[in-house]
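Exercise 7. Predict the structure of AraC family transcriptional regulator from Hydrogenophaga borbori.
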Amino acid sequence: MGRTAPAHDHLSVRAYGASHGCHDHGHFQILVGLEGALELEIAGRGQRIAAGDGCVVPPGERHDFEARQGARCLVLDSHASDWALAMPGPTAATQALARYLAEACARGLPRALALGPTLLLESWLPEGSAPRRARRAIDWSALADWARTRWAHEAIEVGDLAARAHLSPAQFAARCREELGLSTQRWLRGLQLEQARRLRAQGLPVAEAARRSGYRSPSALTAALRRRA
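Solution. The predicted structure, encoded as C-alpha cells:
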C-alpha cells in the first residue's frame, strides 16, 4: 500500500509459517532472521533468510515468502530513503543489535523501539556514510494563523514562534532564512503589517488595527505603513 499520510517507522517480530504469502508495499521493509529460515522471492530473485541473515526489500517490489519449518524475523517497516544506500546484508554489529531489538519488542521497551529504526539503519549503512536526519516540517501558514490569534492579547516574539515550531531560536532563524528567504524579524513584521492593512481596509481605526496586529501603538503602525508605502 502507498503512503497516504505521514507515517512512523515500525519495528516488530513476526512469525512465518508454511502458508505462502505475497505482497508489496510503498515503504522499505527490512528483515533480519532470528530463528528458522524464511524463503523469499523478491522481484523474481530467490533469497533465504536464516538466523543472522537479512535483506532490504525496496518499495514497490513484490515479494513471495514462506517458511516450511517456521521462522521468526525482526521486521522494520521504514520510510527512510537512506535504506536505498544499505549494504546487501547485515554486519555482525547489526545482527547483535537485531537480537536486542527483538527482545525490546517482546518487552515493549519504548525508548529502544523509538531509537531502534535509526540505529538499525546506521549499523547497516556502508562505513563512512550516515543517514540524513529527518527534519520536522514547519507549517508556516498555520504558524502565522497562530500568531494572528494572539497579537491582540499578548506580544509575540520570535522566541515564541520558535517554541511553537519545537525549535531553538537559532534553528528557527536558520529555517526561516532557508525556506522563506527572510530573517525571522522581517517575516514576523511582514505578517503584522499585512494584517494591519487588511483591518484598515475593512474600516477599522488605526488604534484598533494596531492593537489587533501586535503593534505597540497607533504611531508605530502609522510609521510602518509609511515605510512600506
